[in-house]
Amino acid sequence: MNPCNLTQLGVTRESPWAVGHFNIHNLEYVRAVVRAAAAERSPAILAVGMLSIKYMGLAPLIQACQTISRETEVPVAVHLDHARQLGVVREALDLGINSVMFDGSALSYAENVEKTTEVVKMAHDLGATAEGEVGIVPHGAAQVSAEDMTDPARAVEFAERTGVDFLAVSLGSVHGMKRAGTSLNQALLQEVHQQIPVPLVLHGASGVIDSQIQAAVANGIRKINVNTGLKVVLKRHLTAHLASRPESDLLDDFEGGMAAVAQSVAQRMRLFGSSGKA
Ligand code: 13P
Q: 171 with 136: CB under 8 angstroms?
């Protein structure tokens, strides 16, 4: 069955748990996430983002995810993260990706609706799922301004007009935080969740404290995006390991790095409640 799309992962608007979306950057990352998913009996999303495509190439990353996800029985989706151009969406779908996110948050609302609708059609024509975003989850900002947070009425209209399968909302998280210290607007989340018929997505989860993640799952978040937190774990592991074992074989260094990432992914799966759900 692998790789599969987001609706085939088993998570729904009503599930009392969320699936983890883990940004991958190379073969080792893909193996680490898939190993954690298999060990935890958890569904997982392998996410390919724009910086990773620049670093490693779109086709090599998608093909690595497809090949390695076939080695496990637990459901694994391959997902394009934060596409801002229709061209990259087309290319990824032509390579057989199962899910795409169009990030129109920098566009006007009307343009965001128009382009996201087009992406949803492109994806659905091929049996893939699509995620859109309403509101702005900033990159590296100190905090989210009130006008960047998701407006519930807009979110309802956006979901209806575009037909997205999953909707990313802005609740106070910020992309790229190396340490967790952020809380979310849980009341806003409850309001949006009550009104929207599709599962909601939390971006920038690395900066959000664990108790707020758990509350967000209780209040309606069903997909949780993690990138920076795993990079921090891997870098910290490699820095300490290389300082203490400078003569070690490079493949053992990589193996240890994969184990560190897998352990962190598994911890997050338990936090999100997805362990044992596959
Ligand atoms: P972080 O890098 O803050 O974990 O955010 C990841 C993300 O939202 C990817 O879409």
A: no
CB distance 228 to ligand 1 below 6 Å: yes
pLDDT in tens, 166-176: 999 999 999 99
Evaluate: CB of 225 within 6 angstroms of ligand 1: yes
Q: Give me the numbers of helices (H) and strands (E) for the chain, helices first please.
A: 10, 8
pLDDT at 143: 83
* 57 in any annotated domain: yes
* 278 found inside a domain: no
pLDDT at 142: 73
pTM of the full structure: 0.98
Going from the Cα of 135 to the center of ligand 1, the distance in angstroms, rounded, reads 15
Domain-embedded: residue 236 = yes
- Give the mean model confidence (pLDDT) for residues 5-27: 98
Please name the residue ranges forming H helices in the chain.
Answer: 27-40, 50-56, 58-69, 86-94, 109-125, 152-162, 186-195, 210-218, 228-244, 250-272
What is the residue type of 2? N
- Active-site residue numbers? 81
**Spatial distance between the Cα atoms of 163 and 48, rounded to a whole number of angstroms:** 22
